[in-house]
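Reposting from the mailing list since nobody answered there.

I have sequence plus structure tokens for a pair of proteins and want to know whether others read the tokens the same way I do. The first protein:
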Amino acid sequence: MNNMKNLWKKLFLEERPSISLAFFRIAVALAVGFHVLPTFVPLKENYLSGAFKVLNTNFFTAGILDFIQQSPDALVIVMAAIFCLVWFSFLIGYKTQFSAIAMTLGCYYFYALNAFAIGTLAWDILLVTLVLICFVPYLGDYFSLDCVLRRDPSAFYRQRPFFIQRLLQMQLAFIYFYTGLYKVTAQGNWLSGNPIYYLMIMPSEGVTKYFLLRDFFSAHPALCYVLGVVIVMIELLMPFLLFNPATRLTGISLGFLFHVTLILTLDVPAIFFFLFPAQLLLFIPPEKIVAWIEQRRRIFAHSAKIQVIYDGHCQFCTASIEMLKVMDLFGRLTFVDYQTCPDVSLLHSQLSKEKVHSQLYLVEPTGDLYGGFFAFRRLILLLPMLYPVVFLAYFPGANVLGPLFYAGIAKNRYLFHINKKCVDNACLR
């Protein structure tokens, strides 16, 4: 009995770092976005009154479908707008659990309006994953706006219950297993038939893409048969491959290869490309991810750091620095308050008190100097949490508009707070 309790605790109840789920949140948000948001563009054809609709009576009761179908067009439009808002909130990790619940309810609503717009299988898999995600109150532990606003630089260390991550692992492993089982028990048995060869020579419209080797496979039915049997055997073995530490890397690699091949050869829903590969990475022990981060931090701790020079009398500036400390995952930066520095020229020969008062500066160990917008743009490349906004800093015209925007904020930064040391916008002392 004790052995069973210990096994249950080890498999589900023990606390482990939650950083894997923090990254998985982004993959879930992208999968939802690529599935649902495009269906809002032809809103009239998909969801409004008069649209051609397919209702999934196997998933919803008749009462729920009747109730949802009575939605007036104005309500559908409002729900689409709210969905976009909570989806973006979930993507950036703001009010993460609330955003997850609201987004999931929106998915159910639009699924009940029209299952045809995406496809029932993709919807069903996505909704099961979203329901599990809704129960996680700590998706914003890292790589999220919630984490930055909490200003906790050690968030990626935080221990959390492993239960939901284990359920997500089991979900994916048994999707592979039951997919393989279906191929040998349902109509069209892969062990007695040759469906891959059939797809190569008689592809149904909208099923098989014309890829580089399709003609080659069309001319080799025996190879198609062997390939089909291998696929079935791998799918049946995936739970063992993924949960066994000795074969886990093999299972993850085969899963990635499978999904990349699937998206290149067949017209399948985007969920198979955006969600499943990320879910495979949940099998990597989170302790190894944290250990890798700590190793990187030790390396940078013994090397020359990049100096970020800021105004310590500006609460807006110090608050921004606290956020940068959270984003500095590998400890590459050191922060210098110029107000405590007797001679800023010692930090870099081109610096003066007037310069460092006017804007943020960044000094590389090589001596390279970046100021204002260009310092911020350099930080984007240094801090992984800022990678999503890299396109804003490098779009055409950013070299002109970026410095102007930054200068406006820097000039009026004291207006963003009340500071007893600096009650106006000209406190250079």
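The second protein, same order (residues first, tokens after):
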Amino acid sequence: MTSPARILLPILDEHFLELDILWERREAGLGDTELTGRELAELEQRAQRHLDGLLLGPEYALELARRALAADERGAATAAGFVMMDLGDPVLAEELVRALAVAAPEAAHGIRIALRHRDVGPLAPSLRELAGSLEPVVQACACDVLAYHRLEKIASVRDLLTAEDEEVRALASGAIGRWQGPWTADDLRAQLAVPGAPLAHRAALETSARLSLRGLLEACRDAAYREADPSLVALAFLGVIGDAGEVQDLQRALERPDLAPAALAALGALGSPQGVPAILDALGDPLLAHAAAGAFLRITGAEDVKGEPAAPPAELDEAEAEFWDEHVPAEAALARRWWQENAARFTDGIRWQQGVAESETITAPETAMGVRRDAWLRSLNAGEADARSEFPG
């Protein structure tokens, strides 16, 4: 006869897998323009239920956690970190920090994510020691956790701004922002000067917005519109920190195929009714339809504008066509009709997000997390919020 304990083990395996998956979804959703705050909270609640289930079999849960920490998977290491912290044994918490010191890069980031969301006060001395590690990923992860909890500032974090690893540079920028500097326009420009580094670009821009950096808008424009290797992240970020005066330049950017999708993202984030006609025009271009639909829906929150499934454009190669989403979120003719019927209520001079004034969206649980994040950054950049505040991360 199979023992009850043996029957339980597959259930615990399933709990661990679900905890892994749900936290990966949760992390990916923080900048999402569709996942709402309410849906994010539901993901966290579901993940907590799986964690609670795991802790009913503590010995096997610990075995699963240690196995995951020895691998190189971010989501599994996050789940492992929660298990080891929530078992309530300080010895296991210290073991988790020691695991961070020797973990493979993806596992190190997974541990970092778990430590962001638990009380690490007792672990601060060990984390400070790791922040002096010779391994940049370990140092960056330790600094990230300390900064997230507003614990002791590590001056050497600035050395990581020139690291080869893009994510290390991004974490360093983020930690400096949370520690309130030092950070200069030269630091921002140096990060934006490195091509092909969207994570590092976004982190540097967010830190600059958090600290209300003088010269942010100018540096953002320079990086966005440079001829060689323009920063598409900086271009999209103009919608976060700019105003309606950006619309004309963004409309001109739509004429460049390499800039057009990011320019549409910026128009959506900007939320100005003045940009909607250009967005509607872009909806008619098969190569821009998805980006244009995202911008249109972000501003208007329109419903009943979806079209029929579409075949991949002939211009796409085989690999691109394989990942083509056939469902265009908004059909051009339906969107134009919707705008004709509703444009009058979208007053100029107000940022519109998902059909309402942005001021009403920042804390609303039904607002998409990416929209909330951009509104939060905008308020910090304008000095309208406490720079020590923290967006869910």
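Reply #1 (J.P.):
I read it the same way you do. The chain has 20 helices and two strands.
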